[in-house]
Amino acid sequence: MNGAGLSGWLTPDWPAPARVRALCTTRAGGVSGGPWAGLNLAAHVGDDPLAVTANRAVLRPHLPDNPLWLTQVHGTRVVDPATAREPVEADAACTRNANVPCAVMTADCLPVLLCDDTASVVAAAHAGWRGLAAGVLESTVAAMGVDPATLRAWIGPAIGPDAFECGADVLAAFSAADADAATAFVRFGEATWLGDLPQLAQRRLVASGLRADHVHLSHLCTVTDPIRFYSYRRDGVTGRMASVIWLSD
């Protein structure tokens, strides 16, 4: 389950330290129209730049500072938004600095927020299936620089296990690193499967040293809820939501 956030947004339902703050936007509260209708925060999806600027202004009062908007490329690079500058190609952000937001944008890919039990470090990762298979979560855990057993993770709204239809290439990509990854796939057609990306992310995190009960899943599917969530798989041309985490001072 998830807590009710500001303006209809989400807050992770996890036992993070009080110093750790996080939120996940939805379509609520924005001024974009057409296929981007709502609070689209992405400047690269064809929306009116003035609308994107207005939408980001809606988000800004809920954060301690302007977020570093990553140029996400389905890779494994992790940057510290306290020192990085836009534009920067990366798919995760990690910091030990107070009041520095770590943000990722998604519309079906997994937004994964992480913190440690002593609130010394936080991170946010964008994990589409390519980045997930390539090791973006492993790279993020390593960048946090603490005992992985002290970490907690929250997996936010993303394409669900009943909606992610994929081919043999996806199954092979995950099975190459995890012989039991096939348990997260169900045969759907002659040459297609349904893949459970949140479960695959959980497996990757646990393999990286996180405790299984420290990985918290939202169980929210972006594809099946067009009122609240953007979905690239469902709509093609669409907006992006943001998942943000930071350390308060």
> What is the rounded Rg?
17 Å
Total beta strand runs: 14
Please state the structural category: alpha+beta
- Rounded mean pLDDT score: 97
Determine the CATH topology: CNF1/YfiH-like putative cysteine hydrolases
SSE pattern: EEEHEEEEEHHEEHEEHEHE
Output the number of helix runs: 6
Strand content: 15-25%
If strands are numbered along the chain, what order do they take across the biggest sheet?
4-5-8-7-9-13
Task: Report the top-level CATH class.
Answer: Alpha Beta
Largest sheet: 6 strands, mixed
Helix and strand layout, with pairings?
Blueprint: E1 3-4, E2 10-11, E3 20-24, H1 49-59, E4 78-79, E5 92-95, E6 102-106, E7 110-116, E8 122-127, H2 129-134, H3 136-144, E9 151-155, E10 165-167, H4 168-175, E11 185-187, E12 192-195, H5 197-207, E13 215-217, H6 232-235, E14 241-247
Parallel strand pairs: 4-5, 9-13
Antiparallel strand pairs: 1-2, 3-14, 5-8, 6-14, 7-8, 7-9, 10-12, 11-12
